[in-house]
From TrEMBL:
It holds the Pfam family adh_short. Keywords: Oxidoreductase. InterPro entries: KR_dom, NAD(P)-bd_dom_sf, Sc_DH/Rdtase_CS, SDR_fam. The keyword Oxidoreductase applies. This is NAD(P)-dependent oxidoreductase. Residues 3-183 form the Ketoreductase domain. Transmembrane segments: none annotated. It comes from the Bacteria. The keyword Oxidoreductase applies. Belongs to the short-chain dehydrogenases/reductases (SDR) family. The lineage of its organism: Bacteria, Pseudomonadati, Pseudomonadota, Gammaproteobacteria, Oceanospirillales.
Length: 252
């Protein structure tokens, strides 16, 4: 089987680390994101090792997603692993202080965007059959509530249930589906979430040992390269130095 990974949000964090990890193992790569310069840098860094196709893509734009998939050069058209990674959190304030536009951006990216890419690639993945994978980036926020998670955590709960439901419908096709749900991980995630607040980024990760983008890329690579008869349904991964907190109680 050709090994072709299609990675959304390849311009940063987990997506970029996956591009490097899969290239190391000789996979062909289809890399997308909105930042063209970052895609060009990645292509330059990796194309000596493996075939690389890059495309500027906003996953929220369903027509653009469909057109991009349809226009894949033959060499990249037989995608065998979809890594639905593009996503973001915004506005970590209490929900009652958050602009509706920020809720919409999270829903449009993490829910609609992930659905757009999945829908566009499902026929290809089914055609490739046994051993292919859809790996969706969920989050511990998809099942653990915490202040300021509001719509973000809810979008990741969607990712989990959508992944499980896809498994049901894809039974018999050989296509595997996994919800990879990381906890605290140091990427550009907190900068995006806080509107570029470097102090907030530094404060969150300082004095502890978060997961790195490379840690998660290694887990994703593991899931994608298991024998074809094995499906990891969900991978819930935290740093050792993170756990859950007690219930909060409002008192007089
Ligand atoms: P980063 O901010 O480092 O990377 C996010 C990536 O998503 C970027 O490449 C960005 O590319 C892309 N992206 C965002 N919006 C869009 C869009 N509309 N269309 C296409 N691409 C988009 O964060 P992470 O690597 O940490 O996040 C990756 C995924 O992992 C997300 O789904 C996130 O929710 C999830 N996650 C992150 C955790 C963490 O603690 N870091 C933990 C659990 C899950 P560009 O801006 O160029 O479009
Ligand atoms: C990102 C991890 O803990 O900030 O999905 O929700 S967390």
């Amino acid at each position: 089987m050709n090994r072709i990974a299609f990675i959304t949000g390849a311009t940063s964090g987990f997506g970029r680390a996956c591009a490097h990890r899969f290239a190391e193992a000789g996979w062909s790569l289809v890399l997308s994101g909105r930042r063209e310069e970052r895609l060009a840098e990645l292509r330059e860094a990796l194309e000596d090792k493996v075939p690389v196709h890059t495309a500027v893509l906003d996953v929220r734009d369903d027509a653009a997603v469909k057109a991009m998939v349809e226009a894949l050069p033959d060499e990249f058209a037989g995608v065998t692993c979809l890594i639905n990674n593009a996503g973001l959190a915004l506005a970590p304030q209490p929900t009652q202080q958050v602009d509706l536009a920020d809720w919409h951006t999270m829903i449009d990216t993490n829910v609609r965007g992930l659905a757009n890419v999945t829908h566009a690639l499902l026929p290809t993945l089914i055609e490739q059959g046994a051993g292919t994978s859809i790996i969706n980036l969920g989050s511990v926020a998809g099942d653990t509530p915490y202040p300021g998670s509001h719509v973000y955590g809810a979008t990741k709960a969607f990712v989990k249930q959508f992944s499980y439901n896809l498994r049901c419908d894809l039974l018999g096709t050989g296509v595997r589906v996994t919800d990879v749900a990381p906890g605290l991980s140091e990427t550009e995630f907190t900068l995006v979430r806080t509107g570029g607040n470097q102090d907030a980024h530094d404060a969150l990760y300082q004095g502890t040992t978060p997961l790195s983008a490379e840690d998660i890329a290694e887990q994703i690579f593991y899931v994608a390269t298991l024998p074809a008869h094995i499906n990891i349904n969900r991978m819930d991964v935290m740093p050792v130095r993170q756990a859950w907190a007690p219930f909060a109680i409002d008192r007089d």
